[in-house]
Write a structure and sequence with these properties.
- By secondary structure, the protein is of the alpha/beta class.
- The chain has 12 helices and 7 strands.
- The protein has a 7-stranded mixed β-sheet with strand order 3-2-1-4-5-7-6, sandwiched between helices.
- Strand 1, helix 2 and strand 2 form a beta-alpha-beta unit.
């Protein structure tokens, strides 16, 4: 549990409505907290598949004959489940975002607390890292990253400042990036703005929004009727995508209506939005921004 303290553990697994003989997937295995709870509720004939692209997480694999850990990005959920002979499942759990372990290991470059090489890759196999985004992206792409993924209104100024600085010498570390952007970091808002900047770069490095879209679309394909989807998101970009897809099966636009103006939706919302209570936030401060949405396939 030291690797990653699972957020909304009971609520997220409750949402899956576990069947003892069912087949389930935890696409963000991490420290295995959610997976352990799923296995506790599965019978001897049940099956659980875990996904995690982070090589560090593989050391946490569970010794249980009902469990298989797949060392891949969950954007390939359908492909790798089929490799294991699974075409449909009864429930899928996703705890999005960065694990506590990734934040707490300085050299990964995820945290604003440490000075480290610009990296931010969730998998070391990825060719794109934060260094390349900061030092090689042109003005238009840097502006896009900061505006779309950090929701930073001064994205053009941030981009221009980075490009001017890197013309003198490459920006190699998180601390060097902070120094370059220091004039945009007033003391009272420093942590908030830094978090937005880091988030934007991290999402770009790991293609997080594209991955989430691909995952949600495939989840709809592989879930059995009455199968459950339990998703925890941590920022508004993720949550908007999840909320919209659960609502009408689309990421943008409106579903087609029939002659009578009706349209069908693939999911039924289960309960209301769930957020951590004060007691959980006190124990695990990183839970403060978590939002859990649960849906059932029609």
């Amino acid at each position: 549990m030291e690797y990653h303290n699972p957020v909304l553990l009971k609520e997220t697994v409750d949402g899956l409505n576990i069947k003892p003989k069912g087949v389930y997937v935890d696409v963000t295995f991490g420290g295995g907290g959610h997976s352990r709870e799923i296995l506790n509720r599965l019978g001897p004939e049940g099956k659980l598949f875990g996904f995690d692209q982070d090589e560090d997480a593989l050391e946490n694999s569970l010794q249980d004959e009902r469990f298989v850990l797949i060392p891949e990005n969950f954007r390939y959920i359908k492909r790798f489940l089929r490799f294991h002979g699974i075409k449909s499942v009864d429930g899928i759990l996703a705890d999005l975002g960065v694990s506590s372990h990734q934040f707490d290991v300085p050299e990964r470059g995820f945290s604003t607390r440490f000075d480290a090489q610009l990296d931010m890759r969730m998998s070391k196999k990825n060719e794109l890292d934060a260094y390349k985004v900061v030092n090689e992206y042109d003005d238009a792409n840097l502006r896009r990253v900061f505006l779309d993924y950090g929701e930073l209104k001064n994205a053009p100024l941030l981009s221009k400042t980075i490009i001017q600085a890197r013309e003198e010498k490459p920006i190699q570390t998180t601390e060097e990036l902070k120094v370059v952007l220091n004039r945009f970091l007033p003391d009272q808002f420093k942590n908030k703005i830094l978090a937005q900047i880091y988030q934007a770069i991290r999402i770009e490095v790991n293609q997080e929004m594209d991955v989430l879209k691909e995952f949600l679309q495939q989840s709809l394909e592989i879930l059995n009727p009455e199968g459950r989807l339990s998703v925890i998101s941590y920022h508004s970009l993720e949550d908007r995508l999840v909320k919209r897809f659960i609502k009408n099966g689309l990421f943008e636009g409106e579903p087609e209506r029939d002659f009578f103006g009706n349209f069908s939706v693939p999911f039924k919302l289960v309960g209301k939005l769930i957020v951590p209570d004060d007691a959980e936030i006190k124990i695990n401060n990183r839970a403060r921004s978590a939002k859990l949405r649960i849906a059932e396939k029609k």
